[in-house]
Design brief:
162 residues, Arc Repressor Mutant, subunit A, mainly alpha
């Protein structure tokens, strides 16, 4: 059943940072689901494929940590991306017990296409903003992320179920 949302924010919440960030996230997630919906696990699969395409491959645990996912969820995510031919598990030359997650050539090509599609989806989401406003928004969000990362180290919501 589709999620129903109120037509208007709860009284007083339109100025709440938590509400604004939550609704912004939902809007972004919606356009990302549309843009990458045919990819295994949609937006999560896209993020994992981006991580797998980086020049320095990571193992599943490192990639899960980078994406903020539980390691058990990461197993299914990588399994499905691997079944689709987009990533592969390769032996870690520094640790024989570990496998690195790397984008396949097909995965890298697909990622190139998906980056164009997601950029267009984000541009549509931000269509009411000037280029300067878009840059300011990104800059401000980067500052929140940088500042918030120190709190993540002390309190991990994945373990604490917040």
């Amino acid at each position: 059943m589709p999620e129903t949302r109120p037509a208007a924010p709860p009284e007083g919440s339109e100025q709440s940072l938590a509400w604004l960030l939550s609704e912004s996230f939902r809007a972004h997630l919606g356009v990302m689901r549309e843009a990458v919906g045919d990819l295994p696990h949609g937006p999560r699969g896209f993020d994992a494929l981006c991580g797998a395409a980086e020049p320095t491959p990571r193992n599943q645990a490192e990639l899960a940590k980078q994406l903020g996912l539980d390691r058990t969820v990461m197993v299914y995510l990588v399994d499905d991306l691997e079944a689709a031919g987009l990533v592969e598990r390769v032996p870690d030359p520094h640790d024989r017990r570990s496998k690195l997650i790397r984008a396949t050539p097909e995965g890298a090509a697909r990622l190139g296409e998906l980056r164009k599609v997601t950029a267009a989806a984000e541009a549509e989401l931000l269509a009411g903003f000037s280029p300067a406003e878009t840059e300011l928004l990104r800059s401000l969000l980067q500052r929140i992320v940088a500042r918030g990362s120190r709190y993540d180290q002390a309190h991990d919501c994945r373990k604490d179920k917040c």
